[in-house]
Write a structure and sequence with these properties.
This protein is α/β, with parallel strands linked by helices and about 300 residues long. It is built from 11 helices and 14 strands. Helix 3 crosses helix 4.
Length: about 300
């Protein structure tokens, strides 16, 4: 539904996005990650038809059409990073305006207003709304047309817990309905919970693309088990290193990095030497740490 083929966007000598190839299929939710200035918003705007490629192509739909063409935009709903509506209009008037613009059925207005939890404020002027309420109104507008593809730029920014729960439900339903969702976020908890695939942009280039399974494996590899032992017998560490090469001592704790699968073997080795285990904790790798690694691994200067 959404496809980038060697998409490049330059502003003078600066490449905001460089040779990006990425595809989002029906029923797939893809998170686009990256530091500030990495090209995420440019990437979404290109699919929304708001900017045109310097080279390469951005296409939408089934069959694919160039994103700049009106038939391609008909299949798309776009939520920009910062929403702005006329402050004198009420929330309900804003939704009704966009309903007519997109040709959505009348009954969609009540549905999206309920999602946005604006029932009590729908008749109030937008100028009186808080930042979180504006974000909810923007999401309500984006949901109006029930489009086959969603582009969402920082959709969870400023949402309160109720708004987040409602948004999670929207993404799950979109996946079940076979829609394509491409979104950006700096909230890695949202990303880990929602996405089927994770694409990391650094300096306008694709630094990594991981499926949910691949991400789980990468995080598992970065897990750590900590064993608090009654003693530190000579030779224990070298014995453990046969199974876990990066094991090390920290005070009276034996630190064992690596996936959960190797932990039972390490425990058997320790107990086999007759060493008493007085405490054990284990934690899996964190997405934020992996993200920082991927950014650091990009070629020098790309994320300066």
């Amino acid at each position: 539904m959404i496809r980038y083929r060697a998409f490049t966007k330059r502003y003078g000598s600066h490449a905001a996005v460089d040779s990006l190839s990425l595809e989002v299929a029906r029923g797939e939710v893809v998170a686009l990650l990256g530091p500030n200035g990495s090209g995420k918003t440019t990437t979404l705007k290109a699919a929304a038809g708001l900017i045109r490629p310097t080279s390469g192509a951005v296409e939408l739909g089934d069959p694919y059409r160039p994103a700049a063409l009106a038939p391609a935009r008909d299949v798309l709903s776009f939520l920009p990073q910062k929403v702005s509506f006329p402050e004198a209009l009420t929330g309900a008037e804003v939704v009704e305006f966009y309903r007519k613009l997109r040709g959505a059925p009348v009954e969609r207005v009540a549905k999206v207003l309920r999602f946005a939890s604006l029932n009590g404020a729908g008749e109030r002027a937008v100028g009186t709304y808080s930042g979180g309420m504006l974000q909810r109104l923007g999401l309500a507008v984006a949901l109006l047309p029930e489009a086959p593809a969603f582009l969402l730029d920082e959709p969870t920014a400023a949402l309160d817990p109720d708004g987040l729960c409602a948004f999670y439900g929207v993404v799950e339903r979109a996946r079940q309905d076979g829609r394509a969702v491409l979104f950006t976020s700096h909230h890695l908890g949202d990303v880990e919970r929602l996405a089927d695939r994770f694409a990391v942009l650094v300096g306008g280039r694709l630094a990594a693309s991981l499926t949910a399974t691949e991400l789980k494996d990468r995080l598992s590899e970065r897990g750590v088990m900590r064993l608090r032992l009654a003693e530190r017998p000579e030779g224990l560490l070298s014995h453990v290193k046969q199974a876990a090469p990066f094991a090390t001592w920290s005070g009276d704790e034996l630190i064992v990095p690596g996936p959960a699968a190797l932990r039972p073997r390490v425990l058997d080795l320790v107990r086999g030497l007759g060493v008493e285990v007085r405490g054990l904790t284990a934690e899996e790798g964190r997405l934020d740490a992996l993200y920082r690694e991927l950014v650091a691994e990009a070629p020098a200067g790309e994320h300066a």
